[in-house]
Design brief:
about 170 residues, alpha+beta, Dna Ligase, domain 1, Arc Repressor Mutant, subunit A, globular, single chain, 3-stranded mixed sheet
Length: about 170
């Protein structure tokens, strides 16, 4: 069933360590740097983790000016097409967006505290190998992360762990 889930942009990433580099990357591709686009970039650079379009439109809870949500989505889509931004999904929540300048990342997300951990893909190679060995799938965790309990939440919520004996 093709088209049933969203797909990440697969073009090359652009490493832009700061706003000036991001602006130059856009201009070199013939794109304008509108005030709305600049605000989206400022929000992405100001955030310390991937953020939702709603957080961008909200101005990061007052740290930046508010923006129109439709404009934010249009600009995020353009920035992703260019390769400055990638998005991923946390299941039922909104997509999250982050700059690509730190290289490709895959994600772990806690069901309880909602923390998001970005992981360089090689760190999940053993997991990927197990999935391939057991099921024949070439797994990627960059668009849809691994969801579970972080170590702290697992210690606090032992009743939420899967009882493997019941599932065998």
């Amino acid at each position: 069933m093709r088209g049933a889930v969203t797909a990440p942009h697969t073009g090359p990433s652009i490493a832009a360590p700061d706003m000036d580099a991001a602006v130059e990357a856009l201009r070199s591709r013939g794109l304008r740097i509108s005030a709305a686009r600049r605000l989206v970039l400022e929000a992405l650079f100001a955030a310390d983790t991937p953020i939702s379009a709603e957080q961008v439109a909200d101005g990061l809870a007052g740290r930046l000016p508010r923006s129109d949500l439709a404009s934010v989505y249009r600009n995020l889509e353009t920035l992703e097409e260019v390769g400055l931004v990638r998005h991923f999904h946390l299941g039922h929540g909104p997509g999250l967006y982050g700059l690509t300048g730190t290289g490709e990342r895959e994600y772990l997300v806690c069901d309880s505290c909602h923390s998001v951990r970005a992981v360089p893909p090689p760190e999940l190679d053993r997991v990927r190998s197990l999935v391939k060995e057991e099921f024949g799938y070439e797994a990627r965790f960059s668009h849809f992360p691994i969801v579970g309990l972080c170590a702290d939440c697992a210690r606090e919520e032992p009743s939420t762990r899967i009882d493997r004996r019941r599932h065998q």
